[in-house]
Every structure is written in C-alpha cells, then in structure tokens.
Specification:
Number of helices: 10
Helix content: 25-40%
CATH architecture: Alpha-Beta Barrel
Largest sheet: 9 strands, parallel
Distance between the termini: 50 Å
Order of helices and strands: EEEEEHHEHHEHEHEEHEHEHEEHE
Strand order of the largest sheet: 13-12-11-9-7-6-5-15-14
CATH class: Alpha Beta
Number of strands: 15
Strand content: 15-25%
CATH topology: TIM Barrel
CATH superfamily: Glycosidases
Length: 382
C-alpha cells in the first residue's frame, strides 16, 4: 500500500502491482560445496504505470463515466461496443465526484489496469475532479470548509453550511484545499491519464448563501479573482499537462460572474479546454425567446457557443500573445425539460460544429446513468 500525503490529508492507494523492492529482483548465490553458481530466478519486475496515449485524437468526443460504472465488467463491454460502433473516442471518469470520495481504490480496484484497457482501444482518458463541492473532505477538515455563521459560535468547532442538496463545500480561498486537489491530480497523471478535468470550480449557487461563513475568504476580494488565482495556481503546479475547466452554461452569455465567480474570460489563459455545460434544460424560461429552452437544443447550444467564441475572440484581440483554451462543451444526453431523442442530442453536436466552425474541438456527453444514445453518435461511413 502506498500512502500519498496531501496537505492535511492522507490517501491510501492499493498498488501492489507497481511498488516492490526492486533490489530483490535478481540475486546470485554461490554454492561453496558444489562450487556451482546458482541463479535464483528473478522476481518479475512490475509493469510501469501506463503512459499517456501516444497519438491522442485531435477532436475529442467523450462520454461521462462514474467510478461505479468503471468498475463493472459488463459496463466496460458496453463501452467497448460504443467505441467500435460510434464516433466516441474518449471517456471522462470520476476521480473525485460530488461526494468527495476518491474512486480508487474505493470503487475502482486497479486504476492502472483501467487506463490500459482504454488506451489499448486508442481511447483518450480524462480524469474528472470535483473541486470545491466536497462533503468528505469538509467533514474531515471542517476548519477548511464553508461554515454556517448562524450556527457556529466563535469558540466552538465550526458547523458546516449545506446547500439545497445537503452537500457541504470547501473554501475556495484556502491554499490547503487547492493543494489537496492538485495532489490528487498529480497522482492521476502519474497513472497515465491524458487530461484532468476540473468541475465545481466555483462558489455555491444555491441554499441559504447569506448564511455562509468562510475561514479564509475575506469576502472583500471578488469571487472571480479568487477563482482566477486558483486557475493560475493550477497551471503553475501542473505545467505541460492537459487541463480542462467546467463552467456553467450561462457563463457563455452572461457578463457577470453569476454570483459564483465564473467569468469565461478568466479561464482562457490557464486551461487547454474550457467546457461550458450548455445543457438546454438548464437555461431559464424565455432564454433567447423560448418558453422551454430544453425543447430547442440546436438554437440554445448554437447561441451559447457562438457567444462564447465572440468572447474568446475579443479576449484574444486584447491579448494577442496569449495561448488560449479551446472550447469543448458538455452536451445533454438525458431527459430534463424534454424527452431527449437521438435527433435532439445530434442537434447539439451539429450546433457546436456550426457555431465554432474551424474552432470545433469536439464535445463531451453527460448522462448520469452513463447510457448514451447510440443513434446520435453513430460513425459516419463514407
């Protein structure tokens, strides 16, 4: 068992395949009585952790996979069929989800074998980390978490604040919190993952936010500044690494920070991909004139991504020497606001292509059940 110490936290990874005493790999013993040199058979050296995909696809077309699904052999067979029969060439696997639980080894017993399984099929592997929404670490280290200032006494341990889903959050201003997530990312990268995807990189959006207390944030520094500093720190600590950031879909069209600190322009310099979650069901009634935006997937996605591209172009004009992220959205493949047919899923993909044109870099499909609409993503055979 290897213990990896993050700042203020300990992870234990069962890794019997990769960490052995290599000095015992081979030894030579001379027998004095027989005057014969006997060679003790060498202990087989472990295979090294998998390397990143040698020839990653230029256009990433990914599906989201939970840790629970990734440990299921029948589901992995389903994925293999998906890779063979559709245009999907990448997976986004939960490493730390909304619960804060790290998926290996708690769900995935051998993450290295899983990465090899995908790479052998030439599939690009993205590890997803839920950053500031983290009930597990909040409970373990409440002094780093957002607390309920209506229930917490100065001389007493803090009482955690919860959002509408009864989930607790970490203070985005805490360097220790940032280092904790970076340490997870570094371990994932050492196991051959091709990219790290950061989600929940924001302040809470729901619940009694007026009751939130922060152990580190002074509440004078703008939320967007806190997040931009985190983005900059991520890139500093994870150089030469493919990084992606998940943002609210509304960040593509809003000029403010949505009350959560997310401004799309603030992310462009620090990530390889920016992935707005442009799920049509998540837009407000009457967005661009539609009473139910979920029923108009092409129009919603096309408008959102075209507006995001305009923002990126304007930012590039002001920062001509900057290397900016590519836009690669999350798209809806689940029923909410409407029953999503293959045509509606496909419409979002077409809208992404049409709006970004030469800047099209693929997409990622989200379905919480991890079952995807094959007719929407079938391979086109010339």
């Amino acid at each position: 068992m290897l213990e990896i110490f993050a700042t203020g936290a300990v992870f234990a990874f069962h890794n019997n395949n990769y960490f052995v005493n290599q000095t015992a790999a081979a030894s030579v013993i001379t027998s004095n009585t027989a005057n014969i040199t006997e060679r003790i058979p060498a202990i087989p050296l472990p295979q090294p952790p998998p390397k990143k995909l040698a020839n990653p696809p230029e256009i990433i077309k990914a599906v989201y996979v939970t840790g629970w699904s990734a440990k299921n052999k029948s589901y992995l067979n389903y994925l293999s069929n998906l890779f063979e029969t559709t245009e999907i060439n990448a997976v986004v696997i939960d490493i730390k989800d909304y619960s804060g639980i790290i998926s290996y080894p708690s769900m995935i017993s051998n993450i290295n074998v899983l990465v090899r399984f995908f790479h052998e099929q030439n599939v690009y592997v993205i590890g997803r980390i839920s950053v500031f929404e983290d009930p597990a670490f909040s409970k373990a280290r409440p002094e780093l978490a957002i607390f309920d200032k209506t229930k917490s006494a100065p001389a007493s341990p803090p009482v955690l604040w919860y959002d509408n889903h009864k989930l607790s959050w970490l203070d985005p201003s805490s360097k220790e919190v940032c280092d904790y997530n970076i340490s997870i990312a570094k371990d994932v990268l050492s196991r051959g993952f091709d990219e790290i995807n950061f989600d929940y990189i924001r302040f809470p959006s729901d619940g009694k936010t007026q009751n939130m207390g922060f152990p580190f944030w002074d509440q004078k520094t703008a939320r967007r500044v806190i997040l931009k500093n985190f983005f900059k720190y991520l890139r500093q600590e994870l150089p030469d690494t493919k990084l992606s950031a998940d943002l609210f879909g509304q960040a593509t069209v809003n000029s403010d920070d949505l009350g959560i600190g997310q401004i799309i322009e603030d992310s462009l310099e620090y990530f390889d991909y920016v992935s707005p979650m442009v799920y049509p069901s998540h837009y407000a009634t009457n967005f661009i004139g539609f009473e139910n935006p979920a029923e108009h997937p092409y129009e919603v996605v096309a408008y959102s991504m075209a507006t995001a591209l305009l923002k990126e172009t304007a930012f590039k004009n002001l920062n001509p020497d900057a290397k900016l992220a590519k836009l690669r959205p999350w798209l809806q493949d689940f029923n909410m606001g409407a029953v999503y047919t293959a045509q509606m899923v496909k419409a979002q993909i077409m809208a992404t292509q049409d709006s970004l044109k030469n800047g099209y870099n693929g997409y990622m499909l989200w379905n919480p059940s991890n079952i995807y609409t094959k007719k929407a993503i079938e391979k086109i055979i010339d």
